[in-house]
Amino acid sequence: MNRQRIILDPVFPTEEETEVIKLLNRVLENETENGDSERLKVKLVQVGSEAIALPESLYQILRQAAHLMAAGRAVSLVPIEQDMTVEESAILLNVSQEFLIKLLTEGAIKYVKIGSERRICLGDLMAYKKQPTVKRREILRELAEFSQEEELNENRVYS
């Protein structure tokens, strides 16, 4: 199964747009920093039509894009499949494929096997990524110890 990855062209803000985007970014940042339980409702209004409130997921994308574009950076959206390969998942977590396979084997992240390939649900990856750093560091320490033990065993075999 060959999945086609769609990468949309980057959007570069002009100097004029950057100033407006900086203002928008400040509004969006202030809204999230004030700690009010009632979040500012962002709405789109088309002339002569009623306002449509942005869903939370789209609001978060807008906030991230505004932050980057306010800094003068180009932005591009990349759609991500819900079920990801080991390679895609490793890139998302910024770890090696071998390390990710070890996490999958240990049960730290759920996966399903389709034929001989592992598929990882994006939701499970994001849940793992949000785990407290302390827990991840403990797992890393255990893996480092395991790696050292394996290295010692290999040296004994080949010596």
What does this structure look like?
This protein is mainly alpha-helical and 159 residues long. 54% of the residues lie in helices and 10% in strands. The protein is built from six helices and five strands, in the order H-E-E-H-E-H-H-E-E-H-H. The protein has helices spanning 15-33, 56-70, 86-93, 97-106, 122-129, 133-158; strands spanning 43-45, 51-53, 83-84, 112-114, 117-121. The strands form two sheets. A three-stranded antiparallel sheet has the order 3-5-4. The chain has a two-stranded antiparallel ribbon with strand order 1-2. A hairpin with a 5-residue loop joins strand 1 (43-45) and strand 2 (51-53). Helix 1 packs across helix 2. The longest helix is centred in the C-terminal third of the chain and has 26 residues, at 133-158. It is elongated, with a radius of gyration of 22 Å.
